[in-house]
């Protein structure tokens, strides 16, 4: 094809393109749309149920609300009527022995044993236990995650004997026999960051509204 003929075909196509300013505006709108949609998309992937119960229990017990959310997501994906093959119960998959420990040390009514599958009761108990573990491990959330899965007696021993240093980076120091706990810590840590990123503003707003109601 001769150059003159090529120009004849190309020029109308170029002229049909939108002006440069229009392209820039369209790109800006596209970027803004993506920025808005990514959090909404993440909220679909990481939904939050029993929000008010979690927020209230976190405030009452001083437990980290995002750790509560992350553990629920890992344990049951917010499905309350679950029982594991080893007997863990309810939304936060609390073992019967742990229920007894929580009732005894948290000064809960013994009658709550009959309501462990109730989401509100389960969240209250699980939140108290997370707060207890957080104090026990001086705020080390990674150790809390490991203890929630493997039991605080085992985690105490690993830390005391130098088997594991209590960090996420060295989670593979956890004995191979407890591979489930290694995986659990990694998974809950990931969920923790996601839920904190998505719902931190909402929690702060809830606390502010609660404070205003009390003033």
From TrEMBL:
Pfam families membership: SLT
Domain of life (superkingdom): Bacteria
Listed CDD domains: LT_Slt70-like
InterPro entries assigned: Lysozyme-like_dom_sf, Transglycosylase_SLT_dom_1
UniProt keyword terms in alphabetical order: Membrane, Transmembrane, Transmembrane helix
Transmembrane segments: 23-45
Residues covered by the Transglycosylase SLT domain: 54-162
Descriptive protein name: Lytic transglycosylase domain-containing protein
Native source organism of the sequence: Thermoactinomyces mirandus
């Amino acid at each position: 094809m001769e150059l003159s003929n090529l120009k004849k075909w190309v020029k109308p196509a170029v002229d049909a393109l939108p002006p440069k300013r229009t392209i820039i505006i369209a790109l800006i709108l596209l970027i803004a749309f993506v920025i808005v949609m990514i959090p909404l998309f993440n909220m679909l992937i990481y939904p939050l149920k029993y929000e008010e119960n979690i927020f209230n229990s976190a405030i009452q017990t001083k437990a980290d609300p995002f750790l509560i959310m992350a553990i629920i997501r890992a344990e049951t994906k917010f499905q309350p009527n679950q029982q594991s093959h080893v007997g863990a119960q309810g939304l936060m998959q609390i073992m019967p022995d742990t229920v007894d420990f929580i009732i005894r040390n948290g000064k809960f009514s013994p009658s709550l044993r009959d309501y462990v599958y109730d989401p509100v009761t389960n969240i209250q108990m699980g939140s108290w236990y997370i707060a207890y573990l957080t104090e026990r491990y001086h705020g080390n959330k990674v150790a809390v995650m490991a203890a929630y899965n493997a039991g605080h007696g085992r985690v105490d021993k690993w830390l005391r004997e130098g088997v594991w240093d209590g960090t996420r980076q060295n989670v593979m120091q956890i004995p191979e026999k407890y591979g489930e706990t290694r995986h659990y810590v990694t998974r809950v840590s990931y969920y923790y960051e996601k839920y904190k990123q998505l719902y931190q503003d909402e929690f702060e707003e809830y606390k502010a509204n609660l404070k205003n109601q009390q003033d």
